[in-house]
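hiii, so i know i said id send this last week but things got crazy w the move. better late than never?? heres the sequnce for the chain we talked about at the cafe, plus the structure i predicted for it. fair warning i was half asleep when i ran it
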Amino acid sequence: MAFILSISGSTVRSESKRLPELFQWHTQGMEVGDFASTRDLDYIVSKCKKCSVKLGLHTPLLRTDDRHGLLWDSSTTAWDELRRNLEFARDHEIAYVLVHFPYIWDKGGRNLGVEGVRSAVHRLKRLEEWSGVPIVCEPKLGPNRDPSVFMLLWSIGKQELRQWDISFALDVGDIYLASQKLRGRWEPLFSHLAPWCSVIHLHNVWAGGRQYYWTPVSPRGNVPVDKMMAYLDSENKDIYAVLQHNPHRSGGREEVGEGINWLLQNAGPWKDREGYDTWDGKYTRVK
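okay and structure toks below
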């Protein structure tokens, strides 16, 4: 069991003409969503199969799809959309489907509270069991960096989280910013959810005023990426370690490559990377 080095489609904004760039890093996994067209989706699915890359799909799959509807209310449209996504994932042997959850604000900005989250958890589990495809839930900051979702999850005991039996994707940047907003330490927020983490999103944070962006993993970064990864149980299960950054906040290929090398040498263990502890810039796949 080990970390599966993965790359996110966000590094190229899922732009049609840039999707081939995702394969230049010869990672073992990939997480992509927000496609401009079904043609782009089909390309990624086909290319990942050809290159033996494990693919996770980030909802919404298409830019025209509903991003938060299934969490705002009981609208059947959004849940039907997720059901279709899971059917597609099952038919194409997708590794997992990621949803932003819990999202605890309705369209008017009202906090829906823990009961709304509990009912949605049971619904997600039924869909997961029906499809046979793992659903991975990523808690996110709210408007103006609102950390309420992390406070809500912190208030739920580990016994109940164990009963939920859902997998989490932990975004190191969101948890880092949430801890700053709460004027506390990131460790309690992260460690509380770590036992159920199957995906971790890795990057640093650039913040200015109300804006913030993801920047590449770096030994000089402000987010303690390696320390967060050390909390995860990679010895007993595989965990997707997904590299992210906003492309306009990246120093380019050299900076990203430096971050990958630092990560490979300072965290781990890494799945299927024996003898490949550095990224050499070649367009080759490892295994």
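btw The chain has a mean pLDDT of 89. thought thatd interest u
miss u guys!!
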